[in-house]
Amino acid sequence: MSAPVSAPAAWPIAVLMQRDQINNRWQRWRWGLRDVLPATAGRVALESAPICLEWSGAQSQWLYPGFSVQLFRDEAEGYHLNLTSPQPSWFVWWTPAAEPECDDPRHAPEGLPVIQAVTLSYNEAARWMDAGETIEIAPLPAAVANWLADFSSLHYKPEPRKRRRPQSFLAPDERDVSCSKAPSPSADGDDPPVCCP
């Protein structure tokens, strides 16, 4: 079964990052995710380098165009988990600037953080976080949530749960080996008794 014709194969987006000056002796600037926006037509859609939208000595905003989110069947469970969370979100993986003390990244691109990827899969974002990467979230707009829900309803099939019988209801030869028999005590009798949970 294929997706409806009206559903986009990929959702074009741009990532909005913000840099704030902070009063800290070890770090002068703090970067953070501001929002994930639908890509717009025109110049911004054709750009691939970050664009400075707002500049002041204490704060700046940078638009990172040229990204898109595709949905994959093997991530359907992760999409379902995202949709059923209290706040469905975009997950953005970004890495810090190569030159974090750069005062003016408009003239030195190494002063900008790098957007690595954007996903809608809760599981994929969890794998990135488990690897120690910086992941931030932005709220998911209703149109994207509906697109994701349509895909998830087509492709997510929950695994049936298997009931596990308590050990006490099983025959002794069917019970878990770790709880079956305690090893015989040593000759000197100093070994503590073995306990099963």
Please tell me about this protein's structure.
There is one protein chain. The chain is an alpha+beta fold and 197 residues long. The protein has helices at residues 43-46, 76-83, 122-130, 142-155; strands spanning 10-21, 29-38, 51-55, 59-70, 89-95, 114-119, 134-139. A four-stranded antiparallel beta sheet has the order 2-1-4-3. Strands 6-5-7 form a three-stranded antiparallel beta sheet, with helices on one face. Helix 2 packs across helix 4.
Task: Tell me what portion of residues adopts beta-strand conformation.
Answer: 25-35%
Global shape: elongated
Main structural class: alpha+beta
State the major sheet.
Answer: 4 strands, antiparallel
Whole-Å distance between the termini?
48 Å
Number of strands: 7
Radius of gyration: 26 Å
Uncertain residue ranges: 1-5
Number of helices: 4
For the record, the count of structural domains works out to 1
Physical arrangement of strands within the biggest beta sheet: 2-1-4-3
H/E series: EEHEEHEEHEH
How much helix is in the residues? Answer: 10-25%
Mean pLDDT: 84
Which properties best describe this structure?
three-stranded antiparallel beta sheet, 4 helices, 197 residues, four-stranded antiparallel beta sheet, alpha+beta, 7 strands, disordered N terminus
Write the layout of secondary structure elements.
Layout: E1 10-21, E2 29-38, H1 43-46, E3 51-55, E4 59-70, H2 76-83, E5 89-95, E6 114-119, H3 122-130, E7 134-139, H4 142-155
Helix pairs in contact: 2-4
Summarize this structure briefly.
By secondary structure, the protein is of the alpha+beta class.
